[in-house]
Write a structure and sequence with these properties.
Layout lengths: L3 H15 L5 E9 L2 E9 L2 H7 L11 E8 L7 E9 L6 H17 L28
Length: 138
Amino acid sequence: MVGPRRVSVALVALLMLGGCATSTRTAQMGPLSTGPLVTLIVTDDRAVVERECRDVPALGPILGCSIWRTVQPDGRTDVKMMKVVRYTDALPSALALEIDAHELCHVVAALQPIDDPCHVGNGGVVKSGAPNIRGMTR
């Protein structure tokens, strides 16, 4: 039988390790032949932000960045694909992240000479969230 002291030590260790867990959520929207128009990464792990934003010049600690890459999905029209990375103290729900990425996709598409690809593959229908939310459009 395991003694009460061992159980207490194991419980304290488990609680301490549980408090150190970090998480990252990623959403991609607007499929193009060259990849997604928008990638949104939200994390409570500073190492993820530092890794994803390593090529972005900064004077102090990096808490987020936006990175653009110019591609030509049709072989002639310049399109900027965007990745946004940001640190957070509390992760958004899967539903909130999906909505944020979707709306950001519309903004990025509207500022460029392309057809809006943000409903391609999802029909503008929410895929995350509770059953009463899934299937909602716009």
